Amino acid sequence: MNITVLAVGTKMPNWVNTAVSEYAKRFGRDIRFTLKEIKPEKRGAGINAAQGIAAEEKRLREALPAQAFVVALDERGEAPTSQQLAEHLRRWQQRGEHVCFIIGGADGMADALKREANLLMRLSSLTLPHGMVRVLLTEQLYRAVSILHNHPYHRE
Ligand SMILES: C[S@@+](CC[C@H](N)C(=O)[O-])C[C@H]1O[C@@H](n2cnc3c(N)ncnc32)[C@H](O)[C@@H]1O
């Protein structure tokens, strides 16, 4: 199956890119994982947070794969356990979905994107920095794959 992560933010610190690549390379052949960085809108010079979010919304929409099952990452979303995320993954694989996770920028994500998403998912009740969200999401997806393959990486 295809998993795409659209994440607002470029020029992430090395530790973010290293950690995402480390988990992504463990997925194995049944998952084709792509992380696509979305250019953040520069704030200041007459661009406020709302205008910045609107510009990033446009870029996110343009990058959304056709017919994707969209999961918006948000700290007010549903909080699956790792087992429940593995069940979601099993269902998405069975249905042949292209799943697209979207991560907002420093000021968050447009409300319309969250409303229109098929699922709103939180990784924690804490507000996390967007770079950290990429890392945690990729690790949890790898954990979900491990659960489905009965790999000892995940221990209850
Ligand atoms: C720095 S946060 C933005 C916080 C902003 N206050 C908001 O209302 O969204 C950047 C992005 O990271 C993601 N994010 C932050 N904390 C999260 C969490 N606990 N669970 C899931 N996603 C989170 C969301 O996609 C968010 O748009």
List the helices and strands and how they pair.
Layout: E1 2-8, H1 14-24, E2 32-38, H2 49-63, E3 69-78, H3 82-95, E4 98-103, H4 111-116, E5 119-121, H5 130-148
Parallel strand pairs: 1-2, 1-4, 3-4, 3-5
Helix pairs in contact: 1-5, 3-5
The structure holds S-adenosylmethionine.
- Counting DSSP E segments of at least 2 residues, the number of strands comes to 5
Strand order of the largest sheet: 2-1-4-3-5
Helix content: 40-55%
**In the CATH hierarchy, what is the superfamily?**
SPOUT methyltransferase, trefoil knot domain
Annotated CATH architecture: 3-Layer(aba) Sandwich
Pfam family, one: SPOUT_MTase
Catalytic activity: pseudouridine(1915) in 23S rRNA + S-adenosyl-L-methionine = N(3)-methylpseudouridine(1915) in 23S rRNA + S-adenosyl-L-homocysteine + H(+)
Subcellular location: Cytoplasm
Binding site for S-adenosyl-L-methionine: 73, 104, 123-128
